Amino acid sequence: MYATTFLMRDGRVANLDAHLRRLRTETTFHPSAEEEVLATLRSAGPGVFRPHIEVVGSTVSVDLRPAVMPNDDVVVDAEGIRDERRRPTRKGPDFGWQVHQLQRVRNQGADAGLLVDDRGNIISGIFSSVLYLSGGTAHVSAHPRAAQSITLDATLAMLIDAGVDVVEHPQGLPMHQLRTKETWLMSSLEGVRNVTGWMEYGSTLPPQITGLPRGGAPTHREINERMWASASSV
């Protein structure tokens, strides 16, 4: 099983070619099905949608779900969630478990949560990748349980073009760094979101930014604007 979702606005999708390429390479569906997927996306017409594409064997289904443009700021639950995904690097098999965890943290007042390993290191968000900025360098979780992210790859390409260095952390990211640095969550559904609050014991605390300034990195809003400016029509 493979499943993916992303945001579509007025018939346009950010990084569409990358989504279609991953659909071709990670599933067994016949290439001719790609046009059927695109035809279904085109049928949505104007507006904001969250297509959910699922592949089981050679069968492809597309569920068009109405959506709203996401807020590009996010409050994150500060208590890490032990990662219990069975196939963490593949999109789809653990979708139900991830949805349950997301609903749980939202019921507690946060917008998102973080998955941690046995040592408490941050692997990723529940449905997103994570990085923090410090001194003109982007620090990225490259944990072996972190899934590949189209939006993270596009974000890093823009940061590198702006002269930002990228450091990958194969052991994941320590929570204290995320809480004291400018931290972003990135997903194809919600774009690039800046963490503006940490939910802890029922209270929302702002990040305590310390250390070197962020350098010349573009803001998360600028990254989102560039992605939509270059988005492709379906």
TrEMBL record:
Task: Write the protein's name.
Answer: Branched-chain amino acid aminotransferase/4-amino-4-deoxychorismate lyase
Q: Which UniProt keywords apply?
A: Aminotransferase, Lyase, Transferase
Q: Which domain of life is it from?
A: Bacteria
InterPro entries tied to this protein? Aminotrans_IV, Aminotransferase-like, BCAT-like_C
Recorded GO MF terms: lyase activity; transaminase activity
Q: Which species?
A: Corynebacterium testudinoris
